[in-house]
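$ ./design --mode recover --in tokens.txt
reading tokens...
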């Protein structure tokens, strides 16, 4: 697992473009066209190996993932291309 955080301060109330890239153990995060922030995952996994659900923006039980240091999820709205994914997030435990 890897955690990549971008240092840019985002203006609230505006849409931002977030792109995630992964090649084997190397990953990059690009926000609003700024230079990428890179990271790498440790261990034997070399791709997006999902044994469980993938949650974007929230998680149903933060106590179960306390080692991450997270206690709340994304507050706002996400869009994928021309469509909103808000309804999907609501069903997955994401917050608005």
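writing sequence...
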């Amino acid at each position: 697992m890897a955690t990549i955080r971008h240092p840019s301060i985002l203006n609230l109330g505006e849409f931002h473009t977030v792109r995630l890239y992964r090649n084997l153990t190397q990953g990059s995060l690009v926000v609003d066209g700024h230079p990428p922030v890179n990271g790498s995952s440790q261990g034997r996994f070399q791709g997006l190996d999902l044994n469980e659900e993938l949650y974007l923006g929230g998680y149903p039980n933060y106590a179960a993932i306390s080692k991450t240091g997270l206690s709340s999820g994304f507050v706002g709205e996400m869009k994928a291309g021309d469509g909103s994914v808000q309804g999907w997030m609501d069903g997955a435990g994401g917050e608005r």
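exit 0
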